[in-house]
Amino acid sequence: MKFSITSVLSFMALAASANAALNPIEVKGNAFYDSVSGSRFYIRGVDYLPGGASNFTDPLSSSDTCTRDIEYFKELGINTIRVYSVDNSADHKDCMEKLDDAGIYLILDVNTPKNSISRSDPQVSYNTAYLQHVFATIDAFASYDNVLGFFAANEVINNENTTQAAPYVKAVVRDMKTYMAAQNLRAIPVGYSAADISANRYQQIQYFNCGDDETARIDMFGMNDYSWCGNSSYTVSGYDQKVEQYSNYTRPLFLSEFGCNKVEPRPFGEIESIYSTNMTGVFSGGLVYEYSEEENNYGLVSISSSGTITEKQDFVNLKNAFASVSDPSGDGGAKDDDSPAVCPEMEEGVWEVNPLAGLPVMPERASAMLVSGAGDPSGTNEPPTQYGDSGDQSDDSNWDYSPTTAAASGSSTSSGSSSSSASSGSSASSGSSSSSSASGSATSKSAANPGAVNNLPSMTSSVVMLPLAVIVSSLLFGFASVVVV
């Protein structure tokens, strides 16, 4: 009898979930709740990317790494980690079980440095090969009860000139939720992690929660925000303005990255505000950037070449801050309303998405996977999908996101994010000092959007790439003959 990689990994995941200690988290109105106890859940977490963007590793595939780091997670008193990229063909059972035993949930970005929506050419990067990667990643993690949520993308919109990518990100949200429903998987919340761009921050939050199609609306919205620096305050940081501006939002909001390092060591005074009733009626906690010290100097710990951990003063300060602040009692001011937002109007140079336009159509071969499943994961050996998939028909070639085509031009020169982040919204964000928030803080500090493709040729201008794409498509997607009925 033959067993596919998918069936073996799925069996492992199901066996793990049978012994799970944590209950799944669900969304009601603008907050998270324990699906069994009904208690409100606040994210107290860290962003976890040991090695940084330039040295992609899957921290959840190493039992030794997990065992080592979970002890420090417990010492910090956290309940959630965010991981920016994984190898979807690896075995994550041991680490996910250890996290569950430690009372720790996972928020997982489904993209990798090679698989993400490109902000410079979103139509090309939205393709069957890419969606196969996304769906296979969902398959690898959907059975673990301690998966709090998936991020469909990270900081794809990083300035005013990249808003044309928004419909493609929203299409990925729709496709992920549709796939989970079609495959009878748990309805894990799907969200977007945004750069805190003052020019169109409000439009982003509204857009991803607007429209009549519930499947296309995000379930949660993460904001990478570095506006509280040093001994700032609730008002000086602008936290009060964000609370006021988003007070009627109907999805959970949280800080998917925070922890400005302009003042070191970081005192983490914002913890008191984030978990106070000043904010909990609108926000549901956040994740500190980041666990390990990398080139951008945001680490809570240093990890030597031999794997030895040294706690920085930031670690001690954060641990003390978490220990001194309790979650509010009751619902913390949460609201049950889950009505959709009003789609933002087009505004040239700010938000160039037509509110009346539909979303890109899922490629036909990707739609077939709703019935057949994603198939075996390709892991890190798959070729980049940002170039396109030549096996796809141009299902949405006539779809237009705006009355003009002006927004498409100039989008390839995204300027705000860090070093290699220029053109994709793949996983890890940050470290950059960008044109982001009103506070002058960095746009996200993490792994510098490792899916960046600014220096890569587009599909239309690189005919030499086509034979490879044809071969890859033939090898990976022989199941394309499956028909949806």
TrEMBL record:
<keyword id="KW-0325">Glycoprotein</keyword>
<keyword id="KW-0336">GPI-anchor</keyword>
<keyword id="KW-0732">Signal</keyword>
<feature type="signal peptide">
    <location>
        <begin position="1"/>
        <end position="20"/>
    </location>
</feature>
<comment type="function">
    <text>Splits internally a 1,3-beta-glucan molecule and transfers the newly generated reducing end (the donor) to the non-reducing end of another 1,3-beta-glucan molecule (the acceptor) forming a 1,3-beta linkage, resulting in the elongation of 1,3-beta-glucan chains in the cell wall.</text>
</comment>
<keyword id="KW-0472">Membrane</keyword>
<keyword id="KW-0449">Lipoprotein</keyword>
<keyword id="KW-1133">Transmembrane helix</keyword>
<dbReference type="Pfam" id="PF03198">
    <property type="entry name" value="Glyco_hydro_72"/>
</dbReference>
<dbReference type="GO" id="GO:0071970">
    <property type="term" value="P:fungal-type cell wall (1-&gt;3)-beta-D-glucan biosynthetic process"/>
</dbReference>
<protein>
    <recommendedName>
        <fullName>1,3-beta-glucanosyltransferase</fullName>
        <ecNumber>2.4.1.-</ecNumber>
    </recommendedName>
</protein>
<dbReference type="GO" id="GO:0031505">
    <property type="term" value="P:fungal-type cell wall organization"/>
</dbReference>
<dbReference type="GO" id="GO:0042124">
    <property type="term" value="F:1,3-beta-glucanosyltransferase activity"/>
</dbReference>
<dbReference type="GO" id="GO:0005886">
    <property type="term" value="C:plasma membrane"/>
</dbReference>
<keyword id="KW-0812">Transmembrane</keyword>
<feature type="transmembrane region" description="Helical">
    <location>
        <begin position="464"/>
        <end position="484"/>
    </location>
</feature>
<dbReference type="GO" id="GO:0009277">
    <property type="term" value="C:fungal-type cell wall"/>
</dbReference>
<feature type="compositionally biased region" description="Low complexity">
    <location>
        <begin position="404"/>
        <end position="448"/>
    </location>
</feature>
<dbReference type="InterPro" id="IPR004886">
    <property type="entry name" value="Glucanosyltransferase"/>
</dbReference>
<dbReference type="GO" id="GO:0098552">
    <property type="term" value="C:side of membrane"/>
</dbReference>
<dbReference type="InterPro" id="IPR017853">
    <property type="entry name" value="GH"/>
</dbReference>
<comment type="similarity">
    <text>Belongs to the glycosyl hydrolase 72 family.</text>
</comment>
<feature type="region of interest" description="Disordered">
    <location>
        <begin position="371"/>
        <end position="452"/>
    </location>
</feature>
<keyword id="KW-0808">Transferase</keyword>
